[in-house]
Amino acid sequence: MPELPEAEVCARGLARLITGYQIDAARCTQAGRIVNPARDGAAWAAGLVGRAVVGVGRRGKQLVLHLDDEHALAFGFGLWAEVTVSDVEPAELHGAVLRLSGGPDGSVRRALVFNGLALSTLALEAWAPAPEAPPFDALDRRADAATLAALARGRAALKAFLMDERYLLGVGNGYSDEILWEARLHPRQPAGSLAPEEWARLAQSMHRVLEAAVSAGGEAGFLDPFGAPGRYERRVHRRGGDPCPRCGELVAALISGSRETDYCPSCQAL
Questions:
Q1: Strands across the sheet with 83-86, in order?
Q2: 209: domain range?
Q3: What CATH number does residue 116 fall under?
Q4: Is position 269 within any domain?
Q5: Per-residue pLDDT tens for 131-187?
Q6: Which residues touch 132 (CB under 8 Å, ≥6 apart)?
Q7: 213 closest CA partner among 201, 230, 225
Q8: How many domains does the chain have?
């Protein structure tokens, strides 16, 4: 599931490709993914046509296309997200597409395509600035050791805290494993037990891992809007049974519900 780094890479690519373009047509073949106006593909499309994209932003793992009428098109990624920009609309569509025109005379045509399982949610909404933190974006440098310690006071476990969108935005199951491995902290360690130096390691690791993944274009298997593949290789997530790349101990896997948590029992002793 794409998380903050993939959303950030996608936002930067779309900003370069479609800012200033007008939406000439919109179509969605999966109306059940439209949450506003709920399950109404015709009203959703009508609310977009004629609007121009004036910017592209991000809220945690969600992308936001800012429109010129003080509205925004917000979308969340599905399991295998692939949001692309091409010169033509695909022959078969299983998702949504925006037909765009731009350039000095409006003659440049582009199609913004959300195909297959790229979408989890799709909403046309009034745009409003994000409220004061918390929650903090996980790339926000204000989310330092002291801030994390204050936010997590009384919380049960570190991994659950990192993924709790009441406090941090953008960290999901995969990158939380990577962050905790980098910080040498056990995913089930009680947050209230951390020493100040451990909070410092956690904050530094969170920013280092996420920034490295953004720089690498997202995780391996992800395609950005230009079609370029991500190059970030996860070290422990989904690698249960493999040797830890740091110490050689076999990576352990815990299953809770449908989620897998992976960690090194030696490097991340509880």
A1: 22-28, 96-102, 108-114, 83-86
A2: 136-263
A3: 3.20.190.10
A4: no
A5: 888 999 999 999 999 999 999 987 789 999 999 999 999 999 999 999 999 999 999
A6: none
A7: 230
A8: 2
